[in-house]
């Protein structure tokens, strides 16, 4: 039976697919084998047992007929079926890819928006602390200046304190030069001795206060240095966060890095 190559137009299976008459028994399709080898029995068929009985044609230099047309069409049908399955899987994968791309794009946009807001808030917070540090640095500088003025005054006071001390000592020395009959411990001498003792206490107090001032100055300068370092870090961080907060996907300063789109494990 000839197969119409335009079978599709007659609502029949295509010529390369299984036909209705292929369902007949295989034994009806027995054909003479011909001179293809001394092992042949004179008949050929394409039944499932043909490979065991030796009746399936053998491909050699005399013949290339290995399979029947019905087997060829069945193989084509299986190939088309597998192709359709692969195509269906490809369509599903394409759908999943598009869905995943849309989901990841939405997730990336949301994360980018949240990150930008967080960076902007962080920049405002850093600017607030930078302003606070600037005020603290100014206050510390004022305190250092005031303490320096007081330290200079203390040093001058120590120098000026030598004047009454020298006067009191000179008075005592003069009184020691009196005649023996006049060497008495009277009230003026007691006052001079008390004055020298008071001057010594004042000098000791001024020296201790001066040492405290100098120690406080060292601590104040160290604190101001730390504040200035912190203010410098805050300034640099604020400039970076401010620049990052204004970045967009179309910014010309963006640099692409390998692995930047790698999604971290959940």
Automatic annotation (TrEMBL):
The keyword Repeat does not apply. The keyword DNA damage does not apply. GO terms for biological process: cilium assembly; cilium movement involved in cell motility. Its main location: cytoplasm. Residues 199-226 form a coiled coil. It is found in: Cytoplasm, Cytoskeleton, Cilium axoneme. Pfam families: Tektin. Keywords: Cell projection, Cilium, Coiled coil, Cytoplasm, Flagellum. Belongs to the tektin family. This is Tektin. It comes from Stomoxys calcitrans.
